[in-house]
Predict the structure.
Amino acid sequence: MGVDLWQRWPGLRNALVLIAIWELVGQFKLVAGGALPSLSAIVLRLWVDRADYPGHIWATLSASASGFLIGNTIAILAGVLFVTFPVLLRITRGLNIAIFALPPIAIAPILALTLSGMAPRITLAALGVYFVTMSATVIGLSQYDSRAANLVRAYGGAKWQVLWRVQLRGALPAILSGFRIAAPAAVLGAILAEFGGGGRWGLGTYLLGSLGRGEPARIWGIGLVATLIAGLSYVAFALLSARLVGTSRAVSLNPAAPPALRVDPSPWWHRIGLLLCSVALPFVVWWAFLRVLSVPSMLGKTPWDVIHYLFLSELRATAQSRLFSALAETLPITFAGMILGMGFAFVLAVSSRLLPEFTRAFMPVALITQTMPLVALTPLLVLILGRGTSLTLWVTISVTFFPAYVMMAQGLLLVPRAAVELPRAYGAKAWAELRLVAIPASIPYVFAAMRLTAPRALLGVMIAEWLATGRGLGNLLNQSRGYLDFNMIWTVAAVSVLISVGFYQIVLMIERRVLARMGMAATE
Amino acid sequence: MRLQMNRRHFLGASAGAAALPFLPGRARATTPFTMQSAWINDAEFAGYFIGLDQGYYAEEGLDLTYLPGGPDVIPESSIIAGRADLSLTTPDTTIKAIVEQGAPFKIIGAQYQKNPIGIVSLAKSPILTPQDMIGKTIAVPPVNTISVEAVLAINGIERSQVNIVPYSYDPTPLIRGEIDASLDFTTNVPYTIETMGEEAVSFLLYDFGFTIYNDTVVVTEETLRTKRAELVGWLRASRRGWVENFEDPDLWPPRWMDTWFAGTGRSLENELFFNHAQQPLMASPAGYMAMTEEGIEANLEALARVGINGTRDMFDTTLLEEL
């Protein structure tokens, strides 16, 4: 009976083992002299504080749920539009990447000032959700089974019928896997905006008030409640996706890939025009945002203001030297963190095929590091790692590996069965099967993961710099905020977005070369 | 936004014109008025909570909306954006913004006559003067770094002799010995440290030459022009609130545990400690919220030492004179 229970619920056993280890570590103060409290101490603290929670949970929950809904609705509509009219994808490309790469810590105070009430939190939650779901939708819609589409067409189906009956159905697993990442992102976005927005209620606000209390048990408690909210939403979409993926996965291998998303070959001036539109659009939106909300010019800086500040004003020399010395500290460590985070994600994704039990045991830990606000986790990491480079690296790895892992694991999962079964029929071991089929077949997802990871690496570094090390771009942003140096705030935000976009473009160039050699299509 | 501001200004102007200072409060229509606070709700703002609870602002014809602050809230931004009429700020950032960016601010009052920020250390390895900081690691919020650098300069200590790291308002690293001291509100964090089983000692930056106010009351020049009557009313009601608070510092905080302090996660004992500790820092012969000529002079001198060259006309004491 007992053995039967363990075999049926290996996750339960692993969770119990983890909890036991945690309890021991906490009880005997094994991590940095008690910086990691025992689970029982955290639960006791939660009970003592129980009257505080409902108001805070409700505020965070309603903001992140609204943001999740709004962001995902826009994202799916945008995804459908982009697949239907690929030229739109080209035009909005710069904007999409910019939205994805926006460092939330830089725009939270700006949103808090230009919008009021719950709007900043909802906006940040929606922004956190948009790109993930939009790109998942586009990937899903463009990798449909072309045979089913041909069938619909043969019976006289129109373009929208193919979209509705084949592409959207086929895209469901991808969209749901996007939701899985988007759900914790929405909660994090809402909490981050609570930090910048003032107000009395919300888990982020509560955390702020508790940070100075020297009570790790409460900070962990708040983090765990946030984790629980995010985790439950993740689990809900994971279950949904597991149910649906079975009904929409191809049973047999389709030799003909669907036509790649491409605008028809066009004259060079057409292409240049599109490129210019794509580059200009984010700046137009930036400018329009300030105009529409009539943000006072002292607070809201236009793209031109930033250029003027950095290159033409009297302050340009000091502005440039501050910015460049910050960049010199931030960029090298960003590269290192990104490479380590990706490597970790890859190892994890592969091991999820080879050692599914290990992965299942590791997942709760992974999810905690994702949903526990870094602002709560960083002080703990500081106690363990100090305030040096290793701290920044760990924070960066922790923010990059999870989305990369989910993407890669999804890629491994979606390899057509027929392709997997071939080596299996020849008696290949799990590793050989992975090496020969699954990994090459999921390479588009590895690249998609890499593109997803690049901006997060920069964000991770900036968060660590802001909160702990007091160096680089993150510190410059924090200090400028304190001194009401709005020019520098907008400059740092703009520069960090440009760098993220630059990373993204470099990965994309490599991706195109590699995939072209392998005869595969890039997933936009 | 624009429309709302105009409506507010209109209401403010008309109410200001109609307001007769001796009319009993309830007979008058109230004007919407918003203040941006500097931090999350705690005893630091007791006077304003009393003013709201006791209807002192309403008696001045103000329908006061209180916006809490927090570490990432830039209080001055709220008045630039028109979200608040008045804001509590730190004078160094306010004056720096006026000097360097031409921000149209005026300081019309000051809550703390002595800035409560100081260097907090453990009694077992005490840091009691700037000299003691030599060779030590001090955690300082990035915004306050120049204040600490000023104190070092005033006391003839090289910047390179002290290791300054960022501070996130958490005393744990101090307890654990990762840092030797931190810069924080001396009215608050020593209590927290005591609950963690250590004894804390501190010294005020104010007592070693960095003689600035804190929680300065700041408005835009436009608000000063258009809402003068409301601002005077706000100062009067706030002073009444503070007087009442310090008549018995133990009286009010217990009443707020389920209202103003609800959900902050701070204990009543902490708020009482705070409320007692802040009294000597706020008292002034000229009354609460006051700004004296000597005080303003001391502020300008201290700020000049860190390269912020403010002038007397950034302070407007004429509203306080009307109280």
In short: The mean pLDDT of chain A is 80. The radius of gyration of chain A is 24 Å. Chain A has two domains: 25-294, 312-524.
